[in-house]
């Protein structure tokens, strides 16, 4: 993993050189500038949306995984777009596609834990909670 982070800038530079050689230097520069502006616009829009979700959560609504997974992921994709190079741009596009992003998150996070629901006594409808300790151990 460390090797990937060390090689990434050089691989990004190689892809930009290849793009400039195949098209023109001006096209490569315009590509870098366009992805920078696009990343900035997405980050600005996503930041406003995140503050709106935080205000809604503060008003009493439940703060769910949507803020953490969707909003933060799109913000991360915007940051990836701002880096010059084509590898991070492809990674940003993968992160921005919602179903693909959720599938990748499930792959890395593993199975989701079931939320804790206290057991109820069927006759009295009272919640029974507590701690116990075995004395014979």
Automatic annotation (TrEMBL):
Native organism is Parahaliea maris
Q: What is this protein called?
A: FxsA family protein
Q: Name one Pfam family in it.
A: FxsA
List all membrane-crossing ranges: 26-43, 73-97
Taxonomic lineage is: Bacteria, Pseudomonadati, Pseudomonadota, Gammaproteobacteria, Cellvibrionales
A single GO cellular-component term on record: membrane
Q: Does the keyword Transferase apply?
A: no
List, alphabetically, the InterPro entries matched.
Answer: FxsA
Q: Which UniProt keywords apply?
A: Membrane, Transmembrane, Transmembrane helix
